[in-house]
Design brief:
alpha+beta; 151 residues; single chain; 4 helices; 31% helix; Aminopeptidase; 8-stranded mixed β-sheet
Amino acid sequence: MPDLLVPLYRLPPLSLRTDGIIIRRARSFELTPISQFIYTHFGRAWADENAVAIGRQPVCSFIALEAGTIVGFGAFEATCRAFFGPTGVAPSHQRRGIGTGLLLACLHGLRELGYAYGIIGSAGPVEFYRKTVNAIMIPDSMPGIYTDLIT
């Protein structure tokens, strides 16, 4: 999958509360339950990447909560500088705009760090990113940073 480039100076507005969901920055003391959620739904590698994002200052991880329960997460500056991801929403909560909210929260976070552009590494739903945040494909970006992985 290709890497995508996102102009951070053209982002849609950010909404952190919608449909009973709150999106906010993760807190360092929440590392264990967040990691358990990610490990359960998405695996060890994403949990490890998110742990790095939570350890940054400012924290570079957002969570989505419904009634105090984690239903999604989004990270940035986890594997590489200016990179968005990983991100994921519990299957039971998909198709409700939570992933879009997490994406925008993270990209606004990159902009707050002073970046003009963000990178979505090894992007899956390219058309979604194109429509949502005006992302463009980076030529010759495959296979990208996620090569020669430990199995």
